[in-house]
Amino acid sequence: MPLVRIDIRKHPDPEHIQKLGQIVYQAMRDTINVPDHDNFQILTEHDGNRLVNDPEYLGIRRSEGQVFIQITLNEGRTTEQKKMLYQTIAKGFNEAAGVRMEDVFISLVEVKRENWSFGNGIAQYAE
Amino acid sequence: MPLVRIDIRKHPDPEHIQKLGQIVYQAMRDTINVPDHDNFQILTEHDGNRLVNDPEYLGIRRSEGQVFIQITLNEGRTTEQKKMLYQTIAKGFNEAAGVRMEDVFISLVEVKRENWSFGNGIAQYAE
Amino acid sequence: MPLVRIDIRKHPDPEHIQKLGQIVYQAMRDTINVPDHDNFQILTEHDGNRLVNDPEYLGIRRSEGQVFIQITLNEGRTTEQKKMLYQTIAKGFNEAAGVRMEDVFISLVEVKRENWSFGNGIAQYAE
Hey, which chains touch A, using 3+ CB pairs under 8 Å? Predict the structure, then answer.
């Protein structure tokens, strides 16, 4: 159910952004109970000057390599779960894809369970 | 007021994605009381490996032809209306644009009425 | 914290869309208490037929030059603040970037404070 949008500057490795998507999917399964196979993502690479990020907001030193992640998901996760999700994504990006932890920007948008159709025109999660 | 984002893999017919947008607009008018002329959409085609979809989540067989639809709209529609919307979009895509019903992925994001400006810097829907 | 997405038709001036982003950032600081340096944006230019807008909904005469702005931000701003934001963006676009006020479309998506990580895998705004 989460719909994940990842936006990065153009990267020399054409598979880099897919690797990032895979790490986000794994982190959601490990920390916020996203089911196996619930993996839907829109990955976009941009020219450098099309992503704007402040290089020091909140004292965090960001680079040109910042990754924007916006996840639309069902409401109901606790703040503790969200914190675990952020930490797991940032650590995963750093360890498995060479992204600086400072460069991981995450935004969550929460919606109701009946706000999804996964195919066939049916609201699979509605009561 | 709905803002519709449609994301698909590059399609040989350059007008295909616009046809999909037209079907979504018509379905919103028919099922969730969207007014005539309230039609605002951002349509994007992607390279194939930039859209990630699980080919079997919830037992639905998805293909490379999956269409991602995300609609930002005012809160207040009932679950019944949402179900009608999903069904009408999926049937319309299938009958008028040759999209498999399994390949229709829909996500709704609900907002308050004062969260829109349709031009001139005015909040046309605010009380 | 706001994440700003701006979508426009391809513009002859390659810096036009960045100028628009700068005006939105300044307007958010001036009207809805967005802090200095809190500036994160995804700017996208599209082929003309990929942005759909009705040319007369609500009696507003829109052109091909319409700008779509979608801002994800923390909940809690008053309707008065939102009205000031819309007005300030539309006036700023008109005066500083030559955009018709009729062509400024704005959509806000509100989220909880714990729904953000600005880097390092931490929920900087969570209680």
Answer: B, C
